[in-house]
């Protein structure tokens, strides 16, 4: 027969054992959570780097094709020059000069230094990865932390806004209205496309900004040179339709990346809804990246090689889209973005 003291000792032992098991379970769950965060962060970071690599590969393939056509033209011109060399030496000399110019153009296109890898960003990315555990508790992926460090203030220029856009006094939102507003005409203003661009542009370094797009069914946003056409119904006036701008368009659940009139359908995110869209630009590598800022989901990357002018942020809130698209596009403080979902 077990005495009362022994009974309490056994009871205390079982109670302690139960508490220990509960503590083990809690600790294990915490470590499982940390592993989940690390795995997701690794997936996002590698996906972003893969997309940037694909952008550079596309540019290299385009340059190879251009070089192929140039060499065919050069071969033809050289053959013609050879047959006419004896007939007209002066004329041939002029054509040789033209051909030499095209040869130099070909050599420039094949120069690997035109395709830059953003070593500065990659070094910082590696450094932040090494210190990743410092960010685990905050649940902020290393890629997002890096982009946030490049956040800059964006102020929209009302003098560039289409007359059917309402720009907030602070220059941080653009809203479509059916009413044609009485605004002064000037060379900066878009008169057909529903665009507005930022007051200031940037030429050097990296830049990151975010736009709140929640509740909208149609929008376009991206970056543009100040030389983008602004008057008339030319296709180049639309963001991404000419060589002066890069953008992502969202319309009724479908996403499309645009540059120089070439569409890239983003079928991997069809139907996905993002609260915020982030745009990263780097003059070091000529890179323009778009991502769903809520989850740092890479959308598309363009590799421009070298930017030839300052870049301005640009947004188009779109028309009313049958009454479904009245909400504004809101410029966010990208340095303090909404938490990852």
From TrEMBL:
Pfam families: PRY, SPRY
SMART domains attached to this UniProt entry: PRY (SM00589), SPRY (SM00449)
Gene3D superfamilies from the UniProt entry: 2.60.120.920
Domain B30.2/SPRY, chain residue ranges per copy: 134-338
Superkingdom in the source lineage: Eukaryota
Stated name of the protein: B30.2/SPRY domain-containing protein
Organism: Pygocentrus nattereri (Red-bellied piranha)
């Amino acid at each position: 027969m077990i005495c009362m003291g022994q009974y309490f000792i056994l009871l205390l032992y079982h109670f302690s054992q139960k508490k220990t098991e509960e503590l083990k379970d809690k600790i294990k769950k915490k470590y499982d959570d940390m592993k989940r965060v690390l795995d997701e962060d690794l997936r996002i970071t590698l996906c972003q780097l893969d997309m940037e690599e694909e952008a550079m590969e596309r540019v290299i393939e385009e340059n190879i094709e251009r070089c192929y056509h140039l060499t065919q033209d050069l071969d033809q011109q050289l053959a013609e020059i050879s047959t006419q060399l004896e007939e007209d030496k002066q004329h041939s000399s002029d054509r040789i000069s033209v051909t030499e110019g095209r040869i130099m153009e070909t050599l420039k296109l094949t120069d690997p230094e035109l395709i830059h890898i953003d070593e500065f960003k990659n070094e910082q990315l590696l450094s932040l990865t090494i210190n990743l555990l410092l960010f685990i508790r905050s649940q902020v992926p290393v890629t997002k932390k890096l982009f946030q460090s490049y956040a800059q203030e964006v102020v929209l220029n009302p003098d560039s806004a289409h007359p059917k856009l309402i720009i907030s006094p602070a220059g941080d939102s653009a809203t479509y209205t059916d009413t044609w507003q009485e605004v002064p005409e000037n060379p900066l203003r878009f008169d057909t496309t529903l665009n507005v661009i930022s007051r200031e542009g940037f030429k050097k370094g990296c830049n990151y900004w975010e736009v709140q797009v929640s509740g909208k069914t149609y929008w376009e946003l991206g970056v543009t040179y100040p030389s983008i056409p602004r008057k008339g119904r030319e296709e180049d006036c639309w963001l991404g339709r000419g060589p002066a701008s890069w953008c992502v368009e969202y319309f009724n659940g479908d996403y499309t990346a645009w540059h120089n009139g070439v569409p890239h359908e983003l079928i991997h995110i069809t139907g996905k809804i993002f609260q915020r869209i982030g745009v990263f630009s780097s003059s070091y590598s000529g890179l323009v990246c778009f991502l769903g800022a809520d989850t740092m989901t890479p959308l598309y990357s363009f590799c421009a090689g070298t930017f030839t002018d300052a870049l301005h942020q640009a947004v188009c809130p779109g028309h009313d889209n049958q009454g479904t698209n009245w909400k504004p596009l809101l410029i966010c403080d990208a340095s303090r973005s909404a938490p990852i979902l």
